[in-house]
Amino acid sequence: MNDILILLHGNPIAQTIRENELLFPWIEALHVLAITLVFGSIALVDLRLVGVRALSRPISKISEELLPVTWVAFLVAAITGAILFTSNALSYSQNFYFISKIILLALAGVNMLCFQFIIGRNLEGWSHLQQLPNSARIAGAISLLLWISIIICGRWIGFTLEPVLAIS
Description:
By secondary structure, the protein is mainly alpha-helical. It is built from 7 helices and no strands. The longest helix is centred in the middle third of the chain and has 29 residues, at about 60-85. The radius of gyration is 19 Å and the shape is elongated.
């Protein structure tokens, strides 16, 4: 694994990001904006699932409207996050908050898959319901908790990242 991290650390994109004092902040700003869109669009769906907002609107309609925004923003966040990771792969790979963020992202993905394929497979049938089934409400609450935790961990990475020398 260390060899892969060293390879990532030495690639031309990573070197360019490390050597250019403006590139990292610009990529990071784009990453943060994308995460903001991801969280915002997911939070709107989750708050409807939990039963806090937009109770008169069908969850299927809200989900249908916001899903494209979520996926485009998530793609941008994933690409910019991967680029930022390569700039300092060794340090990130040893950072507690980075590792926690990746684990939480995986858990959010599992929660989303469970909702899409098990809990919410009858989403259209819920159109007339103001209060959704408990399983949907729980999935929404878990999603909100996971995404808030992802953002907190992401924010703490910058405060706790320590340089690790690449030794080949």
